[in-house]
Amino acid sequence: MGSLLEAKGICKYFGGLKAVEDVSMHINKGDVFGIIGPNGAGKTTFFNICSGIYTPTKGEILLNGDKISHLKSEQIAQRGMARTFQNIQLFKYMTVLENVKIGFHIHTKTKLWDSVLHTKTFKEDEEFTVQKGLEIIDKVGLSKYTDTMAGNLAYGIQRKVEIARALALDPQILLLDEPAAGMNPQETQELMEFIKILNADGYTIAVIEHDMKFVMNSCNRILVLNFGQKICEGTPDDVKSNQQVQEAYFGKGIIAGEAVK
Ligand SMILES: Nc1ncnc2c1ncn2[C@@H]1O[C@H](COP(=O)(O)OP(=O)(O)OP(=O)(O)O)[C@@H](O)[C@H]1O
Questions:
Q1: In the sheet where 5-14 sits, what is the strand order?
Q2: How far apart, in Å, are the Cα atoms of 198 and each of 77, 102, 118, 192?
Q3: Residue from 10, 23, 45, 227 to probe ligand 1 pocket by mutation (most atoms less than 8 Å from CB)
Q4: What is the pLDDT of residues 221-231, one digit of tens each?
Q5: Single pTM value for the model
Q6: In 88, 103, 116, 129, which residue has its Cα 20 to 30 A from 227's Cα atom?
Q7: In this protein, which residues make up the domain named ABC transporter (predicted)?
Q8: CA–CA separation, 68 vs 79, rounded Å?
């Protein structure tokens, strides 16, 4: 089976700084793929390249075998890649449903003029987005917050709303940048279960995460970056037993020891 997302020799330089240096990896359909590494290792830069926010200095990104690294982020989204960001980017003064509806805009035909004049296209699109929005909100278990202002929700719930909005794109692959950052242990546990449900529903997921328990329990394959370079790509067991990972990133014995359950 071919890879869903593949990186070939990706480099990203900011002036003299080599943020990502010659990183190749692949994500299979059905993977929950973790990207880990110390602060500044190049994880977010790599995500930004995969999702078209940055153009790589060198190398190629392929989605279903097609080169996408020359495309704009909206074009990549249209081809089935959705993402969330490290800092929550919801519209705080809009309801959960309104936030999720925004995710559908690439599937609708409404132009500004249609919304101003309330044309037939606008009404049809509005019915479609409301219905689909409610379905997704129900699917992610947020029905009771449908009409709540996003800014009034607990942090963990806001993260779920962001993921719901990304799902509105009907993506083949979902990129999550530190989804558990700032969550309490219960919220993190719920997020882990949520990701398992999404994966069982058929979504392929790539996730940057610092929480090692989260990564080791949720991901079937993991990429480890250090100073912009790949030092390991493999199963959680491969990563735990990799000498370079232990020495360069975790310090000997931490991964294999009690810290990771
Ligand atoms: N737009 C930019 N311009 C200049 N340098 C940048 C830019 N974006 C990232 N960098 C630098 O590239 C390196 C990698 O940063 P990046 O944010 O990708 O790391 P990270 O692994 O995601 O870190 P963290 O875990 O702290 O989020 C860092 O040295 C960072 O300062």
A1: 17-27, 5-14, 58-63, 66-67
A2: 18, 20, 35, 10
A3: 45
A4: 999 999 999 99
A5: 0.87
A6: 88
A7: 5-252
A8: 9
